[in-house]
Structures are given as C-alpha cells and as structure tokens.
Amino acid sequence: MDKDEIPGWLLSLDKEDVEFIKNFVVNSGSLKEVAKYYKVSYPTVRLRLDKLIQKIEVNNNLENEEFIGFIKKLSIDERISLEDAKLIIEKYKKEVKNK
Fold this sequence. Notes:
The protein has 99 residues and is an all-alpha fold.
C-alpha cells in the first residue's frame, strides 16, 4: 500500500490508538484478552474502544468533506507538501470539531 492510499482516519490516530487496534486484532477481538494485556478492567477497555470508534467515525466523516479532498489533491499534485497538507487538514478538523 502506498502512502497516498492510507486512509485519513488511520493517519489521524495516535500511536497508542494504533497499538490498541493491533492488540485487539492479535487477541481476535476479545476485549477480555485485551483487558488482561493492559491489566485493566473489561469496562475500561470497552470505554477505550468506544472512544476509538467515535474518533474513527468523526475523522472518516471529515475525510469525505470537499475541503479536505481539495487539500489532499493539492498535495498529490505536489502543489503543497504532504506536511503542509497534514497541518492544514488537522487545523481544519480542530476548527470543525470546536463548532
């Protein structure tokens, strides 16, 4: 998979979120096993998963917005750098989230 094929919702996740997803998959989606791995209670893991789901849904919805698509296209066309595109998109997402 090329960098430009990585979904925006995945790029928006923190390192800890990605690690949690990896552990979830490695443990066959068993929240009970994930709770054992992190040495926390099942409800704690469930809450973290729920928050992660919300984060993915928000970023996935934002990714579909026209402005974000425009910025990504500018980056793909090398009219702006990938780093600048990420900064602009993150700033936009924060502004939309705070409304």
